Fold these 3 entries.
Entry 1:
Amino acid sequence: GAGVSQSPRYKVAKRGQDVALRCDPISGHVSLFWYQQALGQGPEFLTYFQNEAQLDKSGLPSDRFFAERPEGSVSTLKIQRTQQEDSAVYLCASSRLGGVSYNEQFFGPGTRLTVL
Amino acid sequence: DQQVKQNSPSLSVQEGRISILNCDYTNSMFDYFLWYKKYPAEGPTFLISISSIKDKNEDGRFTVFLNKSAKHLSLHIVPSQPGDSAVYFCAAVNDYKLSFGAGTTVTVRA
C-alpha cells in the first residue's frame, strides 16, 4: 500500500515569504506528527494530531509556525515570514492508532526547505 | 537540551564484520527505544526496538542491547552488508513523542 507522501519534495523560499508544506498520511492512520530536521541533526518533534485535533504543539519553534489537519487526513504545515534558520527538512509521520502510548510511526520522505 | 545523544557521527566497517552503534540518553522516563535507518532522500524507516523492561532484543542480523543503569543502548549488526550503508538514528519514546539522536553514518566497505 501507499506510504506517507509529502509535497513539495524541495522548496526554495526568499526570506519573508510564506510557505505551505503538505503531508498525506497512510490512509486510515489516526495519528500524524511533524518533525523538523536541521542539517546534521536528528528529527525534532514539532506537533501531534489525533484525527483533526491538534493535541500537542509544544515543539513549534515560534508563532510563525502553524499546522492543521481539518478533516483528519491530509495535514499542512505553514510557516509565515520564513527566516534562514527555518531551513531544514520537514518530516511527516503517521501511525495507525491514537492515544498516549507509542505505536510505530511511518515517515514520509520529507520536504527540504531552503530559505535564502 | 539533547536527551538522546549519538556521539559517533560516522562509522566505517568492512563487509562481513560487526557494526556497533552507540546511544546515550538522560531521561529515565523513556519507556521504549528505537533504531531507525535512513537512506538519502528518504524518510527514516523503523529497524528494531526495545522496551525499557528488557535488556536485549534480537531480529535477524540486528541486536539491540539496553543498559538502564548506564542509560546506554547499542545496536549490533552482524554481519555487516553493503546495503547497511545508511544513517542510523537512535530514538527514545515518552508516551507518543520521539526524541532522536543526531545519527551515525555507517559505511560498509567491500
Entry 2:
Amino acid sequence: SYVLTQPPSVSVAPGQTARITCGGNNIGSKSVHWYQQKPGQAPVLVVYDDSDRPSGIPERFSGSNSGNTATLTISRVEAGDEADYYCQVWDSSSDQVVFGGGTKLTVL
Amino acid sequence: EVQLVQSGAEVKKPGESLKISCKGSGYSFTSYWIGWVRQMPGKGLEWMGIIYPGDSDTRYSPSFQGQVTISADKSISTAYLQWSSLKASDTAMYYCARRTGSHPDIWGQGTMVTVSS
C-alpha cells in the first residue's frame, strides 16, 4: 500500500514561514490534500488538490507538489496555527484514502 | 449549511456491540461517499472505509475488513459504523467525513468510544 512520510514535528517562531513536507513515491503524480487538527477538534481541510484553498482558509496557507515531495507552507505563522497537520492522497491502486503520520507544528 | 452530525460519546464493556451514527444535512446525501476515520488516543488518522449511500456500495480498508460494518439509511440521510464485539483496542475517536473528489472535505465532530471493563 502507498505510504506517506511526514516529519513528526516542526517548530517556527511567530511571523516566520513554516514548511511541512510529505514524502511519497512519485507523489507529484497524485493530488495531495492537507488537514489541520487542533487539540480536541475534528480535522479541517486547509489545502486540496495540491495548492487550492477552501473558502475561509487564509492565503497564508499554500501548497506545492513535485517529484517525491509535497509541501504545505504557512507564511507569517501565528500562535493560532499551532496544530497537527496531516497530508492525504487517494491511492487508486488500493482504492483507499491514505493519510500521512502527521506533523505537530509548534509556534515558539 | 453542509454538515455531518455524529452521535454522542459511548462507554462500553469488552464484548458488547455498538452502532454509531453520522447524519448529513445541507446537501444531497445520496450523491457523496461517506467515510469513517479512526483516531486512537494521541495517534494519527486512519482510514477505515467508505460507503456510497445512493446504492450502499461499501469499501473497507484491509486493516478494518471484518472488524467493523459500515452501512447507511438514505431515507434518513444517516451513515453508521458498527461493531459486533468490542475490544479495549477499539477505544478511539471516530470521525465520519464526506468525500469530494479524492479527499474528505466535510467532517463530523467525532464520536468518542471508550471500551473498558
Entry 3:
Amino acid sequence: EVELLESGGDLVQPGGSLRLSCAASGFTFSRYAMSWVRQAPGKGLEWVSSVSGGSDIIDYAESVKGRFTISRDNSKNTVYLQMNTLRGDDTAVYYCTKGRQLHDSWGQGTLVTVSS
Amino acid sequence: QSVLTQPPSVSAAPGQKVTISCSGSSSNIGDNYVSWYQQVPGTAPKLVIYDNYKRPSEIPDRFSGSKSGTSATLAITGLQTGDEADYYCGTWDDSLNVAVFGGGTKLTAL
C-alpha cells in the first residue's frame, strides 16, 4: 500500500523559509516522479512542482519559480520542497503526490501559514 | 482563473445520474490524458478516474469518465449521499509545461 507522509509545515513570517519533507513507502520510489500540490484555504488545487525519478526533469509553477526548490533523495525515499521568500499567498495545505501528470496517491497534507 | 473550466456546482437526487464537465484546450486536454479527483471536505483528494476513463480497483463502476476533443466528463450513476464532495479534473499542459487542475465542482445529493 502506497503511503506518503508530509511534514515540516509551520507558521512562518513573510519573507521566511521552510522545508517540507514527504516520506514515501509501498512502491519503488526511484521509478516514479513526485509532485507537490497545494490548496489555499477554501480554494481549489494548485500544482506547485514536480521532479522525475532520476531528478533530471524538474518543473515549477510560475507562481513559485525562483523561490521554491524541489529535490529528492532516493536512498531515503523522500522528496523535499525548499520554500524561500514566503508570501501570504503561499498559505495553504501542501500535499505530496505520486506522479507528474497523473497524481495517483496523495499524502494527508501539511499546513503552511505565512503571517506576521 | 483555472486553465481547465468546471461548473462550480452540480446536484441531483440520490439514485440519479450526474455529470461534471471539464473544458480545456488543445495544449492540455486535447493532447493528454485526463484524471479526476474526489475530495471530501477536510480530507486529501483521491483519484477516481485516470487515463480519461480508467478506474482504480477500489472505485465502484458507478463512476465513469470520457473525453472528446478538448473536453472531458465525469459521470456518476446511482448517486449516493456518500458521493458528496468536491471533484477536480486534471491533466498536463504542453504549452505551459505545467500540471493543471480545474477549479473544482461541488457535488450535492439533494
